[in-house]
# Entry
Amino acid sequence: MKYAFPDNFWWGSASSALQTEGAREGETTWDYWFAREPNRFHNGVGPQQTSTFYQHWKTDIQLLKQLNHNSFRTSISWARLIPDGIGEVNPDAVDFYHQVIDELNEHGITPFITLFHFDMPMAMQEIGGWENRDVVDAYARYAQICFELFGDRVLHWFTFNEPIVPVEGGYLYDFHYPNVVDFRRAATVAYHTVLAHAKAVQAYRAGHYAGEIGIVLNLTPSYPRSQNPADVKAAHVADLMFNRSFLDPVLRGEYPADLVALLKSYDQLPACKPEDGFLIAEGKIDLLGINYYQPRRVKCRDSAVNPQAPFMPEWFFDSYEMPGRKMNPYRGWEIYAPGIYDILINLRDNYGNPRCFISENGMGVENEQRFIENGQINDQYRIEFISEHLTWLHKGISKGCNCLGYHMWTFIDNWSWCNAYKNRYGFIQLDLETQQRTIKKSGEWFATTALNNSFEKE
# Structure
């Protein structure tokens, strides 16, 4: 069967500054953390050892062209552009980003630019990071500088990538710096991130730029184990905390009342100012990026909460391992392609069918060299993964969902936080020692799909 997509569909991939650029003037939280605890990173590989986009951007953009990308998302590094977060703008960084943006546009590859992709300047973290409203103001200034510098040639802006992840990683589950476990501080970080987002949107609107502004959220549909009311309630709370805590403010301009009531009843609400509500209402977006990797399956708790334990989201639900689920064994994630359709239908039915696109979807696999045939990685498993998700995405579009594109994570195998290079995600294989790039089978498949704006599947 042939699956054809709408005209002008965005075909491309996504990456980030910190994970690809390499050598950088300004220190980020990742540089700082790696220098102190390299053992927390797979094989002791840190953020300096990336796919060297800072040196190879010109040839990498040629490869994007070869893969028939008509769009590409990356980020600007706040720490590269303004090394201390608040002071002078680094002219070398301005030149670099000007060149990258111009080269993309010249090759007919529309740049999608994210302002914050987990890379907090260390100078900003030292004064409290997102816990400090001064950092919110510093970010708003940084955003405005980016709009002024590049807003004439970048028409698709995103304030944050997966803003729930630094909340989870840095303040709940200890997989990002500053490795805090404290729900109230996590709630403050999440709240201030929404305020920072809204201030950036406000600045963009005030500048009357020609493009549009949005945010990229990793949406994990919450599926209850059963329709038992206790399981349904557990899934609802998980959805409130991990999806709707950002989805509702950016699409509706307000928080879900039941999330506010829940946090209030446990005395976990962040400090709010009277004018915050007006600001959040002004943060409504033009375009939503959706990162989808896996579903969240939950059930009601089977055991009582230890009252001495830190307050956590898991006070309200347990994770549920559905029998017979399809797994990516390398990442430990369930593969569930219909989730992409369920996300789109939920947006259509409950959020006014916003303009959106799949900004990330991907499959990380360990030791892909096993699959080299005639000098090329034959990653048929990735082709199946993409085509299965695209089939469900196509179904969503056929039901009237306003989805405008599909970006894969990622373009070239890149450094992936504490996982470093453990799992590879790219269309293009990277040899870390020689920096040689080799297109995988999936890259060829994607190039054909993008060229034809369609693919065939039995």
